[in-house]
């Protein structure tokens, strides 16, 4: 496998920018997965107060990731919808 390096100044700059974005996106996605996991865990434990707070934080992080372009806004909306559906099921059963 050969590594192709950028030949022009603009291509080199584009490579640097894309690497910065990739690292930023990676960190945001990783944190997002953590908050989603915490929310789902809280929902499965059926602890209403803990679940409410975890879902609120997860929704906020989803919105933030979508606003930064890390994930698509429809993906954020879909994930929020799924979380809210699970939360409302928990609230109606409690």
Taking the alpha carbons of the first and last residues, their distance comes to: 58 Å
Shape: elongated
Main sheet?
Answer: none
**Assigned CATH architecture:** Up-down Bundle
Low-pLDDT residue spans: none
Number of helices: 3
- Whole-number average pLDDT? 94
- The number of distinct β-strands equals 0
Radius of gyration (Å): 19 Å
H/E order of the elements? Answer: HHH
Structural class: mainly alpha
What are the defining features of this structure?
elongated, 94 residues, mainly alpha, Methane Monooxygenase Hydroxylase, Chain G, domain 1, 83% helix
What would your notes on this structure say?
- The chain has 94 residues and is mostly helical.
- The protein has a single domain, classed as Ribosomal protein S20 (Methane Monooxygenase Hydroxylase, Chain G, domain 1, Up-down Bundle).
- The chain contains three helices and no strands.
- Helix 1 runs antiparallel to helix 2 and helix 2 packs antiparallel against helix 3.
- The relative contact order is 0.12.
């Amino acid at each position: 496998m050969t590594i192709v390096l950028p030949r022009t100044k603009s291509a080199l700059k584009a490579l640097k920018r894309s690497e910065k974005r990739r690292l930023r996106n990676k960190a945001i996605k990783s944190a997002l997965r953590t908050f989603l996991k915490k929310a789902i865990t809280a929902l499965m434990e059926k602890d209403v107060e803990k679940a409410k707070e975890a879902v609120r934080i997860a929704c906020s992080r989803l919105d933030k990731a979508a606003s930064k372009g890390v994930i698509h806004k429809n993906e954020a909306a879909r994930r929020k919808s799924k979380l809210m559906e699970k939360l409302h099921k928990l609230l109606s059963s409690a």
